[in-house]
Amino acid sequence: MTSSKRSESDWQGLVNEFLICKRKLESKKDALLILSKELDSCQQERDQYKLMANQLRETHQSLKKKYRELIDGDSSLPPEKRNQVNLGQLLMDSRERNKKLADEIKELTQRLSETQGDNKLLRMTITKQRLGDDEVGVRHFPAHEREDLVRQLENAREELEHSLKTLSDELQDVKAERNVFKEKAERLNLELNHILGGQEKRIIDVDALCMENKYLQERFKQVQEEVSLLKSNIQKYKTALDRRRNPEIGGKSNSRALTGVLSPKQVQGLLSEDNGCSLPATPQSISDLKSLATALLETIHEKNIIVQHQRQTNRILGNRVADLERKLKTLEISGFWSLPGECFLNADHIFFHFPFVTIVFFFWLVLIIYFTRIPIDYLFFCSFCQALFKDQHRMFKHFIINKQCS
């Protein structure tokens, strides 16, 4: 009896273990199906990323080819014409960015190869599990390792998406910068052709027009303030003349106090010791002193306004000098300012560098006027400087034409 009971209990235990193993096997089958689906989706994403990487590589090669064409120029032209426009310095930044993009593409290809290796390893383990080698599959890829592998694949996909977005943004920036450099190069080519060709129709410089517009706006504001100041002075003179013509209103004391229009002799006479000590304490003397004080305050205010106008004008002139120096530096960097193969002591070369001497003379003249406070007409001074620079530009153009003809 006891042996039969034991055999029945053992049989029940074996049946239960068989059912448990069967359920585990079904769960493993479901897990394998899920992993196979995820593997297919990962393969599709890998193919998409590979296609995107190839497209980016092709666009990069096309952009590199275009940049080389811009740098080398037309091969049919002689080397003297091709060397006139130096675009190497303008495209230096774009080359550096292209190098960075190439490094990032290499990194993406390396990551893609790593993901391919991971997918191959995962496929091998899945085939082993399908063939019945459950022990090997469980030994090499337990549940937590599979979760880690899936998490790593998801992180790699997110990194690839992020890097793809950054590459597309940088590509747009490079395209925009290329267009800017292209427009600038075309404008420089037009200006250079105008200088070398000696055409009468001048090309409009947008930067110079913007700078001239700013200067004219500042001058217009200053002229408006000066007009308002002159109107107030005219009103003061008018009231003073009216008071002189009407002796009944002001009398002798008011005729002497001209409400802001006083000469230095009148002020000295009013503030002299004899007259000051002998002034009686009458309402007329008090009114005279008040009018004198207001006149002095108004003259001080006018002088302050004039000083402010002079400072603003000096600031405008300083900004224009800084812009001119910046343009000279750009010309020196681009190679349009000096001619190679000539001695500096040559007469033609000295004539060529004469605009630089003119600019230095103009700068020192502005400093002398600023520190010595010489009263000059700034509008006449600016027109004189503008005429001087136009003359130097014309002389420079004739010099280039003569050198080209010779």
UniProtKB/TrEMBL annotation:
Segments traversing the membrane: 350-371
Pfam family, one: CC149
InterPro entries: CC149
Keywords attached to this entry: Coiled coil, Membrane, Transmembrane, Transmembrane helix
DNA-binding is among the record's keywords: no
Coiled coil: 25-240
Family (UniProt): Belongs to the CCDC149 family.
Cross-referenced PANTHER family: COILED-COIL DOMAIN-CONTAINING PROTEIN 149
Stated name of the protein: Coiled-coil domain containing 149a
